[in-house]
Amino acid sequence: MKDINIINKISVIEKDYSLFLIDLWGVIHNGIKIFPEILEVLRNLQKKKKEIIFITNAPRRALVIENQLTEFGIDRKLYSRVISSGEITWRYLFEKFRDKNVNILHIGPPRDNHLIEGLSYKKVSIPEEAEIIVNTGPWGDNDKLENYKNILDQSLKNKLPMICSNPDKEVIRGDKFMICAGKLAEYYEEKGGAVKYFGKPYPEIYSHIFKSINFINKKKILVIGDSLENDIKGANLQKCDSLLVSNGIHREFNNGVGKISKNIYNLIALKKIYPNFISYNLSW
Ligand SMILES: [Mg+2]
Questions:
Q1: 40 Cα–ligand 1 center, Å
Q2: Spacing, Cα 218 to ligand 1 middle (Å)
Q3: SS3 label, residue 196
Q4: Quick check: bond before 161 cis, omega within 30?
Q5: By C-alpha distance, which of 52, 55, 50 is closest to 24?
Q6: pLDDT (tens digit, 9 = 90+) per residue, 96-110?
Q7: Sheet bearing 103-107, strands edge to edge
Q8: pTM here?
């Protein structure tokens, strides 16, 4: 396995990087509040003239997420921008279907409806009437995959292509695990369904960021995230350095509070996805 350094604060490595691509859920906040040392990290990075872009697999447009960050107490001046899997999905749908009168089966809560706005689409509620599925996640926060097998099996029979706006399979809100769009898409794909994913680790979200930056030296980018399969795999594919925060989605592999255990290395070896650094949380 390649060298992985455990660090306890980001100030020991920040000098080697100029652009920080930072995940939100599990790194900055838990869906309910921001983690204690985040503002200090952001303020110090800004003082050192680092560029901060939040990159998130949230099935929501970027502006919606910026507003949520403001509510969490993160001043808009503390970062350059947010780019989300939802934003990339919206742009794709808009390019492809804006004049097509397509029949969309939307699987996802009403708060994600804005992802299919701006299209001349017809929203349908049964697979037999649909031409595509836009999957933004479960309808209810406590839903299980089992609740969706019927509608997904029906959709398979109708050979509906699925657009998945969040490759994450689960997320932790507060202390509770919830399934995400990626969990439904995984089932659909395993059964032979066609799925197009937007978000980390897939390339569109990174190329969207790189296009917006004048000069990019990938050696100067540090990707920070709590998911090996999404954040760190995305960094590996883009050949950027990365920092895994262990107290997020993989927290069960920690050795209690504040302690990174060998178990996380087993997971890394199993998945063959390699961060350069591991830190328990994001602190200065
Ligand atoms: Mg995360």
A1: 19
A2: 21
A3: strand
A4: no
A5: 55
A6: 998 889 999 999 999
A7: 122-124, 103-107, 132-135, 162-164, 195-197
A8: 0.92
Question: Tokens 């001046």 map to which residue?
Answer: 77
Neighbours of 189 (CB within 10 A): 15
Spatial neighbors of 47 by CB under 8 A, at least 6 apart, are none
Looking at the chain, the number of H-run helices and the number of E-run strands are 8, 14
**Yes or no: is domain 5-57+201-279 CATH 3.40.190.10?**
no
Q: What is the three-class DSSP state of 106? A: strand
pLDDT digit string (tens) for 167-208?
A: 999 888 877 889 999 999 999 999 999 999 999 999 999 999
How many angstroms separate the alpha carbon of residue 233 from the centre of ligand 1? 13
Task: Identify the CATH number of the domain defined by range 98-197.
Answer: 3.40.50.1000
Check pLDDT > 80 for residue 214: no
Predicted pLDDT at 272: 95
Whole-number pLDDT of residue 124: 95
Q: How far is 125 from 31, CA to CA, in rounded Å? A: 29
Query: Residue ranges of the domains in the chain?
Result: 5-57+201-279, 98-197
Rounded to the nearest whole angstrom, what is the distance from the C-alpha of residue 37 to the centroid of ligand 1? 17
Cα-Cα-Cα-Cα dihedral sign, residues 66, 22, 254, 203:
positive
- pLDDT above 70: residue 1: no
Distance 156 CA to ligand 1 centre (A): 30
Å from CA of 144 to ligand 1 middle? 20
Distance 158 CA to ligand 1 centre (A): 33
Amino acid, single-letter form, for residue 206: Y
Q: Is the pLDDT of residue 63 over 90?
A: yes
* Structural contact between residues 244 and 225, judged by C-beta atoms closer than 8 angstroms: yes
Expressed in angstroms and rounded, the spacing between residue 228 Cα and the centre of ligand 1 is: 9
Ligand 1 centroid to residue 193 C-alpha, Å: 26
